[in-house]
Amino acid sequence: MYDYIIGQIKRITPEYVVVEQQGIGWQIFTPNPFAFRIKEDMQQIFLHMHVREDAHMLFGFRSLDERELFRKLIQVSGIGPKGALAILASGNPSQVISAIEMEDEAFLVKFPGVGKKTARQMILDLKGKLGSLLEQVELPSAEDELPLFGVNPNKQELEEAMLALIALGYSDKELTKIKPKLEENDQLTTTEAYMKQALQLLLKVK
Protein backbone atom coordinates (compact mmCIF):
# COMPACT_ATOMS: atom_id res chain seq x y z
CA MET A 1 0.00 0.00 0.00
CA TYR A 2 1.22 3.50 -0.80
CA ASP A 3 2.36 5.60 2.17
CA TYR A 4 3.67 8.76 0.52
CA ILE A 5 4.99 10.15 -2.74
CA ILE A 6 7.83 12.58 -3.35
CA GLY A 7 7.68 14.42 -6.65
CA GLN A 8 7.06 17.70 -8.44
CA ILE A 9 3.66 19.39 -8.55
CA LYS A 10 2.93 19.82 -12.26
CA ARG A 11 -0.74 20.80 -12.29
CA ILE A 12 -3.30 22.14 -9.82
CA THR A 13 -7.08 21.91 -10.36
CA PRO A 14 -10.02 22.68 -8.03
CA GLU A 15 -10.23 18.99 -7.09
CA TYR A 16 -6.77 17.49 -7.36
CA VAL A 17 -3.07 18.01 -8.01
CA VAL A 18 -0.87 16.14 -10.46
CA VAL A 19 2.47 15.00 -9.07
CA GLU A 20 5.15 13.82 -11.46
CA GLN A 21 7.48 11.11 -10.26
CA GLN A 22 9.86 9.24 -12.56
CA GLY A 23 7.95 10.26 -15.67
CA ILE A 24 4.51 9.31 -14.30
CA GLY A 25 1.84 11.88 -13.43
CA TRP A 26 -0.16 10.88 -10.35
CA GLN A 27 -3.64 12.37 -9.90
CA ILE A 28 -4.06 13.05 -6.18
CA PHE A 29 -7.24 14.46 -4.62
CA THR A 30 -6.59 16.77 -1.66
CA PRO A 31 -8.67 18.87 0.78
CA ASN A 32 -7.28 22.10 -0.68
CA PRO A 33 -5.30 21.67 -3.91
CA PHE A 34 -4.37 25.35 -3.92
CA ALA A 35 -2.38 24.86 -0.71
CA PHE A 36 0.27 23.41 -3.02
CA ARG A 37 2.46 25.35 -5.43
CA ILE A 38 3.83 24.47 -8.85
CA LYS A 39 7.60 24.60 -8.42
CA GLU A 40 10.74 22.66 -9.18
CA ASP A 41 11.31 21.53 -5.60
CA MET A 42 10.35 17.97 -4.70
CA GLN A 43 7.34 17.80 -2.38
CA GLN A 44 6.17 15.01 -0.09
CA ILE A 45 2.49 14.09 0.04
CA PHE A 46 1.12 11.41 2.36
CA LEU A 47 -1.30 9.11 0.55
CA HIS A 48 -4.46 7.15 1.12
CA MET A 49 -5.66 4.80 -1.60
CA HIS A 50 -9.43 4.41 -1.93
CA VAL A 51 -10.62 1.41 -3.93
CA ARG A 52 -14.04 1.31 -5.59
CA GLU A 53 -15.47 -1.12 -8.09
CA ASP A 54 -15.05 1.42 -10.88
CA ALA A 55 -11.92 3.29 -9.80
CA HIS A 56 -8.79 3.38 -7.66
CA MET A 57 -8.31 6.90 -6.27
CA LEU A 58 -5.40 8.50 -4.43
CA PHE A 59 -6.01 11.09 -1.72
CA GLY A 60 -3.12 13.22 -0.52
CA PHE A 61 -2.33 15.15 2.64
CA ARG A 62 0.39 17.47 3.84
CA SER A 63 0.78 15.72 7.21
CA LEU A 64 0.31 12.28 8.72
CA ASP A 65 -2.18 13.64 11.25
CA GLU A 66 -4.33 15.13 8.52
CA ARG A 67 -4.40 11.75 6.81
CA GLU A 68 -5.26 9.99 10.06
CA LEU A 69 -8.24 12.30 10.64
CA PHE A 70 -9.38 11.65 7.07
CA ARG A 71 -9.23 7.91 7.69
CA LYS A 72 -11.26 8.28 10.88
CA LEU A 73 -13.91 10.34 9.12
CA ILE A 74 -14.47 7.93 6.22
CA GLN A 75 -15.15 5.15 8.71
CA VAL A 76 -18.32 6.98 9.75
CA SER A 77 -21.48 5.81 8.03
CA GLY A 78 -22.67 8.56 5.68
CA ILE A 79 -19.26 10.16 5.12
CA GLY A 80 -17.37 9.29 1.96
CA PRO A 81 -13.96 10.52 0.82
CA LYS A 82 -15.42 13.66 -0.79
CA GLY A 83 -17.28 14.57 2.38
CA ALA A 84 -14.17 14.00 4.50
CA LEU A 85 -12.16 16.27 2.18
CA ALA A 86 -14.76 19.03 2.56
CA ILE A 87 -14.46 18.82 6.34
CA LEU A 88 -10.66 18.90 6.25
CA ALA A 89 -10.66 21.79 3.76
CA SER A 90 -11.86 24.12 6.50
CA GLY A 91 -8.26 24.26 7.67
CA ASN A 92 -9.36 23.82 11.31
CA PRO A 93 -9.44 20.08 12.07
CA SER A 94 -9.02 20.82 15.76
CA GLN A 95 -12.42 22.55 15.69
CA VAL A 96 -13.97 19.44 14.14
CA ILE A 97 -12.41 17.23 16.81
CA SER A 98 -13.56 19.59 19.56
CA ALA A 99 -17.10 19.61 18.13
CA ILE A 100 -17.15 15.81 18.18
CA GLU A 101 -15.84 15.66 21.74
CA MET A 102 -18.34 18.33 22.89
CA GLU A 103 -21.19 16.73 20.91
CA ASP A 104 -21.75 19.99 19.04
CA GLU A 105 -24.07 18.84 16.26
CA ALA A 106 -24.88 22.43 15.28
CA PHE A 107 -21.28 22.96 14.19
CA LEU A 108 -20.90 19.65 12.37
CA VAL A 109 -24.01 20.09 10.20
CA LYS A 110 -22.46 23.21 8.68
CA PHE A 111 -20.32 21.05 6.42
CA PRO A 112 -21.72 20.04 3.01
CA GLY A 113 -23.34 16.63 3.07
CA VAL A 114 -23.45 16.43 6.87
CA GLY A 115 -27.00 16.34 8.21
CA LYS A 116 -28.17 15.77 11.76
CA LYS A 117 -28.10 12.00 11.35
CA THR A 118 -24.53 12.00 10.06
CA ALA A 119 -23.40 14.48 12.71
CA ARG A 120 -24.83 12.23 15.42
CA GLN A 121 -23.11 9.23 13.85
CA MET A 122 -19.78 11.11 13.83
CA ILE A 123 -20.15 11.72 17.55
CA LEU A 124 -21.16 8.14 18.31
CA ASP A 125 -18.33 6.64 16.25
CA LEU A 126 -15.47 9.04 16.99
CA LYS A 127 -15.97 10.64 20.39
CA GLY A 128 -13.12 9.64 22.67
CA LYS A 129 -11.07 8.28 19.78
CA LEU A 130 -9.51 11.49 18.45
CA GLY A 131 -7.84 12.95 21.51
CA SER A 132 -4.34 12.07 20.29
CA LEU A 133 -4.94 14.17 17.17
CA LEU A 134 -6.28 17.26 18.91
CA GLU A 135 -2.88 18.74 19.73
CA GLN A 136 -1.02 17.27 16.77
CA VAL A 137 -3.03 18.29 13.71
CA GLU A 138 -1.35 21.30 12.17
CA LEU A 139 -2.38 22.97 8.94
CA PRO A 140 -1.02 26.23 7.51
CA SER A 141 -3.06 29.18 8.69
CA ALA A 142 -4.44 31.71 6.23
CA GLU A 143 -2.57 34.43 8.13
CA ASP A 144 0.75 32.89 7.13
CA GLU A 145 -0.18 33.19 3.47
CA LEU A 146 -1.54 36.73 3.39
CA PRO A 147 0.50 39.65 2.03
CA LEU A 148 1.60 42.48 4.28
CA PHE A 149 -0.16 45.11 2.22
CA GLY A 150 -3.52 45.34 0.49
CA VAL A 151 -3.89 44.90 -3.25
CA ASN A 152 -6.86 44.51 -5.51
CA PRO A 153 -8.19 40.94 -5.47
CA ASN A 154 -7.43 38.76 -8.44
CA LYS A 155 -10.66 37.73 -10.14
CA GLN A 156 -9.21 34.54 -11.60
CA GLU A 157 -7.99 33.32 -8.23
CA LEU A 158 -11.36 34.10 -6.66
CA GLU A 159 -13.13 32.10 -9.38
CA GLU A 160 -10.71 29.20 -8.88
CA ALA A 161 -11.61 29.20 -5.19
CA MET A 162 -15.32 29.18 -6.04
CA LEU A 163 -14.83 26.19 -8.35
CA ALA A 164 -12.90 24.33 -5.66
CA LEU A 165 -15.68 24.97 -3.13
CA ILE A 166 -18.29 23.68 -5.58
CA ALA A 167 -16.16 20.56 -6.03
CA LEU A 168 -16.27 20.09 -2.25
CA GLY A 169 -20.07 20.15 -2.31
CA TYR A 170 -21.03 23.74 -1.49
CA SER A 171 -24.00 25.10 -3.45
CA ASP A 172 -24.18 28.20 -5.65
CA LYS A 173 -26.70 29.66 -3.19
CA GLU A 174 -24.26 29.32 -0.29
CA LEU A 175 -21.38 30.81 -2.27
CA THR A 176 -23.50 33.72 -3.48
CA LYS A 177 -23.99 34.77 0.15
CA ILE A 178 -20.28 35.09 0.89
CA LYS A 179 -18.82 36.13 -2.47
CA PRO A 180 -19.38 39.89 -1.94
CA LYS A 181 -17.41 39.76 1.30
CA LEU A 182 -14.55 38.03 -0.48
CA GLU A 183 -14.56 40.61 -3.26
CA GLU A 184 -14.39 43.42 -0.70
CA ASN A 185 -11.36 41.96 1.06
CA ASP A 186 -8.35 43.42 -0.74
CA GLN A 187 -5.89 41.44 1.41
CA LEU A 188 -6.78 38.17 -0.29
CA THR A 189 -4.52 37.62 -3.28
CA THR A 190 -4.10 33.85 -3.60
CA THR A 191 -6.62 31.12 -4.37
CA GLU A 192 -5.75 29.35 -1.12
CA ALA A 193 -6.35 32.51 0.89
CA TYR A 194 -9.74 33.02 -0.80
CA MET A 195 -10.67 29.40 -0.03
CA LYS A 196 -9.73 29.56 3.61
CA GLN A 197 -11.58 32.83 4.16
CA ALA A 198 -14.60 31.48 2.28
CA LEU A 199 -14.69 28.34 4.41
CA GLN A 200 -14.55 30.41 7.59
CA LEU A 201 -17.47 32.51 6.36
CA LEU A 202 -19.47 29.44 5.31
CA LEU A 203 -19.14 27.93 8.77
CA LYS A 204 -20.60 31.12 10.24
CA VAL A 205 -23.51 31.80 7.92
CA LYS A 206 -25.04 28.32 7.59
Automatic annotation (TrEMBL):
Ordered alphabetically, the record's keywords are: Cytoplasm, DNA damage, DNA recombination, DNA repair, DNA-binding, Hydrolase
Spans annotated as Domain II: 63-140
Q: Where is the Helix-hairpin-helix DNA-binding motif class domain?
A: 71-90, 106-125
From the UniProt entry, list the residue stretches annotated as the region Domain III: 153-206
Q: Where in the cell is it found?
A: Cytoplasm
Q: What SMART domains does UniProt report for this protein, alphabetically?
A: HhH1
Q: Which GO terms describe its cellular component?
A: cytoplasm; Holliday junction helicase complex; Holliday junction resolvase complex
For molecular function, the Gene Ontology terms on record are: ATP binding; four-way junction DNA binding; four-way junction helicase activity; hydrolase activity
Membrane as UniProt keyword: no
CDD domains given for it? UBA_RuvA_C (cd14332)
- SUPFAM superfamilies per UniProt: DNA helicase RuvA subunit, C-terminal domain (SSF46929), Nucleic acid-binding proteins (SSF50249), RuvA domain 2-like (SSF47781)
Q: Which InterPro entries match?
A: DNA_helicase_Holl-junc_RuvA_I, Hlx-hairpin-Hlx_DNA-bd_motif, NA-bd_OB-fold, RuvA, RuvA_2-like, RuvA_C, RuvA_C_sf
* The keyword Cytoplasm is annotated on this UniProt entry: yes
Name the Gene3D superfamilies for this protein: 5' to 3' exonuclease, C-terminal subdomain, Nucleic acid-binding proteins
Which Gene Ontology BP terms does the record give? Answer: DNA recombination; DNA repair
Identify its protein family: Belongs to the RuvA family.
Description of its domains: Has three domains with a flexible linker between the domains II and III and assumes an 'L' shape. Domain III is highly mobile and contacts RuvB.
State the function annotated in the UniProt record. The RuvA-RuvB-RuvC complex processes Holliday junction (HJ) DNA during genetic recombination and DNA repair, while the RuvA-RuvB complex plays an important role in the rescue of blocked DNA replication forks via replication fork reversal (RFR). RuvA specifically binds to HJ cruciform DNA, conferring on it an open structure. The RuvB hexamer acts as an ATP-dependent pump, pulling dsDNA into and through the RuvAB complex. HJ branch migration allows RuvC to scan DNA until it finds its consensus sequence, where it cleaves and resolves the cruciform DNA.
How does it associate, per the subunit comment?
Homotetramer. Forms an RuvA(8)-RuvB(12)-Holliday junction (HJ) complex. HJ DNA is sandwiched between 2 RuvA tetramers; dsDNA enters through RuvA and exits via RuvB. An RuvB hexamer assembles on each DNA strand where it exits the tetramer. Each RuvB hexamer is contacted by two RuvA subunits (via domain III) on 2 adjacent RuvB subunits; this complex drives branch migration. In the full resolvosome a probable DNA-RuvA(4)-RuvB(12)-RuvC(2) complex forms which resolves the HJ.
Q: Which HAMAP family match?
A: DNA_HJ_migration_RuvA
Tell me the protein's name.
Holliday junction branch migration complex subunit RuvA
Give the species this sequence originates from.
Lysinibacillus halotolerans
* Origin organism lineage: Bacteria, Bacillati, Bacillota, Bacilli, Bacillales
Q: What's the encoding gene here?
A: ruvA
